[in-house]
Write a structure and sequence with these properties.
Structural class: mainly beta
Mean pLDDT: 80
Shape: elongated
Strand content: over 45%
Length: 423
């Protein structure tokens, strides 16, 4: 669904921008071309930079993020742009920057959107991007789409819209998607080309999980834009990541039913420290039914610093009993001979010296919570297992976990990895 959303938005913008131009006339001939200058000042916000800070612990809602100091605010914005209309299509380009903001300074943002209107109602989509790459957060160019209306009643303009936005934090230490659901409204006075207005908005964020109410004033010179512009929803975050440890040697195995081009993406709650082949923005490989992947040893390898919660259930074994334990556990989980051999080869010689080990398993759902896995085309079955090894000086009593059933049928993906507690 997200991939369709990312493809649909540029397509809608392109169609609306091309459609605004008449193919039988020069491209600069439109039904209407309305330049505008917009100045907007935020009066109050429920989550203001200077009024509100919040600290969340990773043991609660934000695995991998030990502290988030969030500041949500509608910053003061100065914008200039152009709205083009042709029949029932419209598109606009807006260049904006904060003003009267010592922290952000000059931080230009480009917003391009387009859509379809019917009467007072419109459906639109857009993309905006910070042109200053030294901004507070390295955020990929977010895509947004929405529905709204702009009613003109004599000297009064009433506008409202609902918008969905998807973006991504793209730092070396944090790679995480976020979404914003926004509901906004404005009340404008239409005086020739001068349009003073009041606006209100409610924004709901998915990462971090929070919301904000905003109220402000502004004025527009020229044509009244259809939407308030996504650039007014920018944020400032201070995020501290303190991982609990490194998940070592996770191997991802692919078994499609036929030779297939497969895309694999992971999203650890910390950051990737090693990968083979190079992960970059995801793996795109050719995989075969026997598990072979050209250019690899038959698996996709990565390591990552992550935060995790150690489960209460597990096993305690003497170090000399581990190889036999590996065989038994992995067979019962559903791994095949090659996968078991790779696991035993690595984890027999890469544990610290200790007489005993408490071993705690993280099965599919627990691993997904720490490091979501996305495979395209979608597999029929996924098996993921990470083991947490904790050196102990004597045997400890642990309640044994229940191993979830797994059946290898059709397109199957498997993964194993491990962590040493305290490393």
């Amino acid at each position: 669904m997200l991939r369709l959303f990312r493809l649909a938005i540029p397509a809608l913008i392109l169609v609306s921008m091309i459609g605004t131009a008449s193919f039988s006339e020069p491209l600069w001939i439109f039904d209407n071309a309305a330049p505008f200058l917009d100045i907007r000042a935020n009066i109050t916000s429920s989550n203001s930079k200077y009024e509100y800070y919040r600290v969340e612990e990773s043991t609660n809602d934000f695995d991998g993020i030990n502290e988030i100091r969030t500041s949500y605010r509608r910053i003061n914005m100065a914008s200039m742009g152009l709205t083009l209309e042709k029949s029932y299509l419209f598109s606009s380009v807006t260049l904006s920057t904060p003003f009267a903001d010592e922290e952000l300074g000059f931080d230009p943002c480009l917003d391009i959107n387009g859509g379809v209107r019917y009467g007072d109602f419109q459906v639109y989509a857009g993309i905006f991007s910070d042109l200053n790459r030294d901004c507070l957060n390295q955020i990929s160019s977010p895509l947004y789409g929405g529905i709204g209306a702009l009613h003109r009643l004599d000297k009064l303009g009433i506008g409202y819209d609902f918008r969905y936005l998807h973006g991504r934090y793209d730092e070396d230490w944090l790679n995480h998607d976020y979404e914003i659901y926004s509901l906004s409204a404005r009340l404008a006075c239409l005086i020739d080309i001068f349009h003073p207005y009041l606006y209100f908005s409610y924004d709901k964020w998915t990462f971090p999980d929070d919301h904000s109410f905003n109220f402000g004033i502004g004025f527009t010179l020229g044509g009244l834009p259809y939407t308030l512009g996504a650039e007014s929803r920018r944020i400032s975050n201070e995020i501290t990541v303190t991982p609990d440890g490194v998940v070592r040697k996770p191997n991802i195995y692919l078994y499609p039913e036929k030779e297939s081009e497969v895309s694999v993406r992971i999203n650890p709650n910390g950051y990737i420290t090693a990968s083979l082949p190079d992960y970059s923005d995801g793996w795109r490989v050719t995989a075969y039914p026997d598990g072979s992947i050209p250019g690899t040893e038959g698996f996709l390898f990565y390591e990552a610093e992550v935060s995790y919660d150690k489960p209460e259930e597990g096993w305690c074994l003497a170090s000399g009993d581990l190889p036999a334990f590996y065989d038994s556990l992995l067979i019962n989980c559903g791994f095949n001979e090659k996968e078991i051999s790779d696991f035993v080869e690595y984890w027999t010689v890469n544990l610290p010296a200790a007489d005993y080990f408490a071993v705690y398993p993280l099965f599919n759902e627990a691993v997904d919570h720490i490091c979501p896995l996305e495979v395209t085309p979608g597999p029929d079955n996924i098996l993921r297992l990470w083991l947490i090894f904790e050196p102990v000086s004597k045997m400890v009593q642990l309640e044994k976990p229940e191993i979830p059933p797994f059946e290898r049928t059709n397109f199957t993906v498997t993964e194993w990895g491990g962590m040493v507690a305290g490393e």
